[in-house]
Design brief:
The protein is an alpha/beta fold. Helices cover about 45% and strands about 15% of the residues. The protein contains 13 helices and 8 strands. β1 and β2 form a beta hairpin. It is globular, with a radius of gyration of 20 Å.
């Protein structure tokens, strides 16, 4: 008796299955970079404008200000370098209980600085940026303190939204209706990087993360709270400090122990972050990304 069977669909091309070829073609295959090698590439583009500033309060709360108001605190190489230094300082401040990340002049962060982006607009530059800032944000996420992103003004857009995922909590200002958070990367012809996709899945789950990235929507405070993306809405920075203060009333060593214990179950291991960098890099400086940059497209509703 002759047995019928379905056609064999898995063809081999150059020694790869279709799935393997698909993954190969859509990921970075250039020079591998260590953290220090990536850092040396990025710091070549340091600018005098922009900074990330640290203020230490006597109550054990640090305030971290993204400060580049000429472009709504968009991130450039100088700010990445500053954030690396601040993360190291916080890791050594043993009395610290918590930190609030916020933006200068009443805005959080509009993503990546387009002037900086144009200078490294190729897969190699994108890979270097991801290795460098991804490592910094991963280290920031693992700090044994409680961290909060306070999102106000125009909000947290693109890379700015990614930075919020490195914090334990996200608060949005509800004083105005125009404050938004949005992972609008697909409009720029790219995908999120810096380890944020894995963190989003941990925060929201796979299905909601998929919708969030595909739709590139800007969420109001109420919508973001409903989706589980943010944890609360407050009117002022003082309210954000009060909110955080309620979380860190325990002894500093107890707070640090709790944070370390929870981090043991982190859903975003280093291997996931590295794969994210490989997927992002070929899109960075690609046709869709270049077209968006040339149009100065920047997170419009």
């Amino acid at each position: 008796m002759r047995l019928s069977r379905a056609p064999i669909l898995m063809q081999i091309e150059n020694g790869r299955t279709p799935k393997a070829k698909y993954l190969h073609d859509l990921t970075y295959h250039g020079q591998e970079l260590s953290f220090n090698e990536a850092k040396n590439i990025i710091i070549q583009y340091l600018e005098s404008s922009g900074s990330v500033d640290l203020e230490k309060d006597v109550n054990g709360i640090a305030k971290i200000r993204l400060n580049n108001p000429r472009c709504m605190n968009a991130i450039n190489a100088k700010m990445m370098s500053d954030l690396e230094e601040i993360t190291e300082k916080l890791s050594q401040w043993t009395e610290c209980k918590g930190a609030i990340v916020y933006g200068a002049d009443g805005n959080f962060c509009a993503g990546g600085d387009l002037n900086f982006a144009k200078k490294i607009s190729n897969p190699y530059g994108g890979y270097a940026m991801n290795i460098y800032l991804g490592h910094i944000l991963n280290k920031f996420k693992k700090l044994p303190i409680i961290t909060v992103a306070y999102i106000e003004g125009a909000g947290a857009l693109g890379g700015g939204a990614e930075i919020t995922t490195a914090c334990d909590y996200r608060l949005m200002c509800n004083a105005v209706d125009t404050t938004a958070i949005g992972f609008v990367h697909s409009k720029m012809g790219i995908v999120p990087a810096w380890g944020s996709t894995a963190r989003l899945v941990s925060i929201m789950g796979v299905r909601k993360t998929l919708d969030l990235l595909l739709e590139s929507r800007l969420f109001s405070a109420a919508e973001a709270m409903d989706s589980g993306l943010v944890d609360g809405a407050v009117a002022t920075m003082a309210d954000a400090e009060t909110w955080l203060s309620h979380k860190i009333r325990a002894d500093v060593n107890v707070i640090r122990a709790i944070k370390r214990m929870v981090q043991c179950y982190d859903d975003s291991p280093e291997t996931v972050r590295m794969m994210e960098s490989r997927i992002f890099a070929p899109l960075w400086g690609g046709p869709a990304n270049q077209a968006a940059i040339e149009k100065h497209l920047k997170h419009k509703r």
